[in-house]
Each structure stands twice: as C-alpha cells, then as structure tokens.
Amino acid sequence: MRLGGFVYWGREAEADLENKLWMAGPDLTVSFEGVELNAQYVERRDDNPYLIVGAHETKTRGAFGELTVTPGGDQGRWYFTGLYNWVDSEIGSLDYKTMTGHVGYLLARNFRLIGEYTYDFEAKASRFTAGFVTAF
C-alpha cells in the first residue's frame, strides 16, 4: 500500500495580467496478488485562469479511480482495467465524467492487442477502440 499526496503552486503571467494557482490532493495505491487499485483526488484554485481583467477565483476539483487485474500476475498475458475519471469546475466546459473498461492481451513482450470501451456521462456518448500497441 502507498499513501501520498501532492501540492503545486505557481503563477503564470502575460503582459500585465497574472494567474496565481494551487493544486493539492491525496494519492493512494493498494496492490495485492494481481490486483492494483489507484485513486487520486485534486482540488485546484485559480484567481485568473483566462488572464483577463476583472476575473474572479475559479474552483476545480477532480478524481480518478483505476482498478487493474492481471490474472496471471507479472508473467500473465491477459490484463483488465477499469477507470473512472471525474472533473467538476466552475468553468463548465471543463466538466468531465467518464468510465472506461479495457482488456489487453500480450502477444510478445513488445506487442499487445487491446480493446477499450469508454462512456462519457457529460456528452452521453460512447467510444470503442481496438488495435495493437507495439514498440521496437
């Protein structure tokens, strides 16, 4: 098990305008016998995210959870992953909520077949991907 956290703060500027921002949140990983759970949460504050005159503080928060199962352990050929992503912001175009299921089969150390289905709750749309991943 791993429990951690992260903090970031900084500023960005353009001409005479500036955005001060910070982000912070916890990070968790739990692993046991071919199963791994990862989770992370973030809070973010920007005082001028678009670098405009008269801006106000904007709050954004988000999280993800990922569950990976490898039935054969490190030497197995199959793996399965479920992923949930969520972003809630005062900037509506940033709102995001999806769930993904992924299955992979390792044909060789550097060649795997994959299939993935994602449902976007905000757009009420689905996406399916199939193919292969390789590197030489």
Supply the key terms.
mainly beta; 8-stranded antiparallel sheet; 8 strands; 72% strand; 136 residues
Could you please describe the fold and organization of this structure?
With 136 residues, the protein is an all-beta fold. It has no helices and eight strands. It has strands at 2-14, 17-32, 35-46, 58-69, 78-89, 96-108, 111-120, 125-134. The chain has an eight-stranded antiparallel beta sheet with strand order 1-2-3-4-5-6-7-8, with no helix packed on it. A hairpin with a 2-residue loop joins strand 1 (2-14) and strand 2. It is elongated, with a radius of gyration of 19 Å. The two termini are 33 Å apart.
| Residues in β-strands, percent | over 45%
Shape: elongated
- Which blocks of ≥5 consecutive residues have pLDDT under 50? none
Q: What's the Cα radius of gyration?
A: 19 Å
Please bin the fraction of helical residues: under 10%
Task: Please summarize the sheet with the most strands.
Answer: 8 strands, antiparallel
The helix/strand order is EEEEEEEE
Q: Looking across the biggest beta sheet, what order are the strands in?
A: 1-2-3-4-5-6-7-8
Count every beta strand, where a strand is a DSSP E run of 2 or more residues: 8
SS class: mainly beta
Task: Output the number of helix runs.
Answer: 0
What is the CA–CA distance across the termini?
33 Å
Q: Averaged pLDDT, please?
A: 95
